[in-house]
TrEMBL record:
<dbReference type="InterPro" id="IPR020471">
    <property type="entry name" value="AKR"/>
</dbReference>
<dbReference type="GO" id="GO:0050235">
    <property type="term" value="F:pyridoxal 4-dehydrogenase activity"/>
</dbReference>
<dbReference type="InterPro" id="IPR036812">
    <property type="entry name" value="NAD(P)_OxRdtase_dom_sf"/>
</dbReference>
<dbReference type="InterPro" id="IPR023210">
    <property type="entry name" value="NADP_OxRdtase_dom"/>
</dbReference>
<protein>
    <submittedName>
        <fullName>Pyridoxal 4-dehydrogenase</fullName>
        <ecNumber>1.1.1.107</ecNumber>
    </submittedName>
</protein>
<dbReference type="Pfam" id="PF00248">
    <property type="entry name" value="Aldo_ket_red"/>
</dbReference>
<dbReference type="GO" id="GO:0005829">
    <property type="term" value="C:cytosol"/>
</dbReference>
<feature type="domain" description="NADP-dependent oxidoreductase">
    <location>
        <begin position="12"/>
        <end position="324"/>
    </location>
</feature>
<keyword id="KW-0560">Oxidoreductase</keyword>
Length: 340
């Protein structure tokens, strides 16, 4: 099992398309198109989408632009677990739990959770149409353990184990897809999936749980277990919903005073060493050998160039030493200086 082998050679930076679903704000179609094209022009060849992002809006926008390029030159991942219906609803009234209002500017189509085998196949078929393609290389099972499930997330996991897990394993064995895994923002379902004796995932898209602001839980068990199973991780949300990139959100909500204070400490250290916080955020995630790639999102073309520059920006070793000394990163977190 290896996600890295399924990505374009040399890929470290991919493109997360949640913002293209009108995340937090309504993005003009032209701006969304320019952003995807900017990603292409900067050499990005891995794109991650999901039906949930604006009720299919992100997939539609991504498909429109990528259809202009050769399909053999890029890799797509999308997600299953939610099916988009033709029925229209009040977007602001959606019961999205912790993500309430995040995609209030998306399409008004109703979405239903469906982790069964049939729901998985329908979701993939619908995504193929929106993405204007005949295949998707990697499929993630989306949001199995959202907080709004409470303790019921285990029952949702069980439905997926009997449905989506087995359906995707069959598709992988048949060569229809190259890999599958979980796309979640909690580590517990990933840990549980690695313990299964059947239908094992190839890896995980872990959103928000391996960032400068939140990585301790992932380091305890998930990272070592993933390494032991050769299951690699794509890090989503490396800027923690934007607060590490100058935004105001953390975990899809307004950042708390405590989080903002921590961000200010990181900014101060970054300023002393004359580096960008974006560079620190991306290179922190990539320093872990289990991480296959990072996929920050962007809704403006100029952000793509910033992300690309951040991956290769030179960060002094003293920056990382100070971050560790100030306990802003866990003592056992792999850092770029540890590779020297």
């Amino acid at each position: 099992m290896s996600i890295k082998d399924k990505l374009p050679a040399g890929t470290r930076l991919g493109f997360g398309t949640a913002p293209l679903g009108n995340m937090f704000r309504a993005i003009p179609d032209a701006e969304a198109a320019e952003t995807v094209e900017a990603a292409w022009q900067h050499g990005i060849r891995y794109y991650d989408a999901a039906p949930f992002y604006g009720a299919g809006l992100a997939e539609i926008r991504l498909g429109d632009i990528l259809a202009k390029h050769k399909r053999s030159e890029y890799v797509l991942s999308s997600k299953v677990g939610r099916v988009i219906l033709d029925e229209i609803e009040d977007v602001n009234a959606r019961d999205l739990g912790e993500k309430a209002g995040v995609f209030a500017h998306g399409r008004p189509n109703k979405m239903v959770n469906d982790y069964t085998a049939d729901g998985t196949m329908r979701s993939i078929e619908d995504s193929l149409k929106r993405l204007k393609t005949d295949h998707i290389e990697i499929v993630w099972i989306h949001d199995l353990a959202q907080d709004f499930y409470g303790d019921d997330w285990l029952s949702v996991f069980e439905i997926a184990r009997k449905g989506a897990f087995r359906a995707l394993t069959k598709l992988r064995e048949e060569g229809v897809i190259k890999a599958w895994g979980l796309g979640v923002n909690r580590v517990e379902p990933c840990e549980l999936a690695l313990d299964l004796s059947e239908a094992k995932p190839d890896g995980f898209l872990l959103a928000g749980r391996y960032t400068l602001l939140d990585h301790q839980r992932a380091l305890q068990r998930l990272m070592p277990d993933a390494a032991a199973h050769h299951a690699e991780i794509v890090v989503g949300g490396p800027y923690s919903s934007g607060v590490l990139a100058g935004g105001a959100h953390f975990e899809y909500q307004k950042a708390s005073p405590e989080i903002l204070a921590k961000v200010e400490k990181i900014k101060a250290i970054a300023k002393r060493h004359d580096i960008s916080v974006k560079a620190a955020a991306l290179q922190f995630a990539l320093a872990n050998p289990v991480v296959a790639a990072v996929i920050p999102g962007a809704s403006r073309p100029e952000r793509i160039a910033e992300d690309q520059a951040a991956v290769s920006e030179v960060i002094p070793d003293d920056f990382w030493r100070e971050m560790r000394q100030e306990k802003l990163v866990a003592e056992n977190a792999p850092l770029p200086i540890d590779k020297a």
